[in-house]
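Sequence decides. Our protein:
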Amino acid sequence: MYLHWFGGQLPKPQQIKTKGTVDTMFVHPSALVEDGATIGTDSKIWHLCHIRRGARVGSECVLGRGVFVDADVQIGSRVKIQNYVSVFHGVTIEDGVFVGPHVCFTNDLFPRAINADGSLKAADDWVLAHTLVKFGAAIGANSTIVCGSTIGRWAMIGAGSVVTKDVPDYGLVVGNPARLIGYVSPSGKRCASPEEAERLG
């Protein structure tokens, strides 16, 4: 099947080469995958995505329209990242994570465009803060993840939340700032404790 974009017919997806490896994948012709990026087998990179050099996307991932993956970002396998998500340098996403549309990760705790003397900030004028999203976690649409946070295994972030601190394994958080309101099992069932969530599986 052919897709149409701006009225022109696009070619069918092809096998492409990234950093010395050849994998079977789908990369939409409108996407930009920089030299030095690695994309795993059977992953799908959709319209207008931008994958920067040094980024690694695992196997069986799906990246929706307009996803930006910054330099050296590490994304595991079987990850789903929905439309218009920005995954900035310093973020690591483990296997099986769901990231809803318009989620934004940050990487600078004290962002400024200029230094105190008014000069434009350069690459060495700020400190990178790392973020880790662990196995099976789910992040709801329009959430913001403030850098320096760890989101635990199978945790769930409610839509529109602003995460400013660590989220425990199986934790369910909502709001701005996000607060813990309970726990969820891997299947999404509400639980009274992380122990119950782990037991339910």
